[in-house]
Amino acid sequence: MKHVLDNPAWNALISGNKHLSNGNEQVKYFDKEVSPFAGLKENSPDNFSVLYQLIPHNVPILFITPVEMEIPGLWNVLQFIRGLQMVYQTEAELAEVRQEIIPLTDQHIPQMLALTKLTNPGPFATRTIDFGHYHGIFEGDKLVAMTGQRLHVFEYAEVSAVCTHPDHTGQGYASQLLLQQLHRIKAASGIPFLHVRYDNKRAIEVYEHLGFTTRKEVYFYVLQKNESEQSK
Asked: At the topology level of CATH, where does 4-82+218-230 sit?
């Protein structure tokens, strides 16, 4: 039996993120202002065709799979990214959060967008905050670090958008924010997980230090509709 994290976008869209889901029984996707992720129940050419017809825009989408794939010609592959899927399953007692961490709301969206544009932790749009559980660290009125939750796959909750302003690195902000998320997810009887680029050694070391272990390698495809196919 396949593990639910082998198809995390699809399984999030039918479980913990169902309220943000669009699509049908074979193909689902988020609104483009929430997330570029799309998921297929089965990674078949037919379902890629259904996705092509169903999505009402031509903004790039993000597709994740545990195996490298041949993408049908309906889609242009704009980018291919190797990543690691890491899961937190240690029983060790978590350290306490020492930093003041503030829940983020709609009023903080401009600062959140500016911070993610500067640090590029992954896709972040005007309504990504709708995934919930976004928190940040401020110096004065300035948001200098944040993280939140993205895919919610049954009992698994993905920690995402871990980022710190370049002028404020080296102060342990990312570790404190990650700790806060771990406490929150475990208090809700969930299992934390995350995705990271395979070559982001600095981040991987932070995650491993906190207790995350690599479950498997995964592959991200940034796809866009092949406009030449639309007239066929």
From this structure: Aminopeptidase (3.40.630)
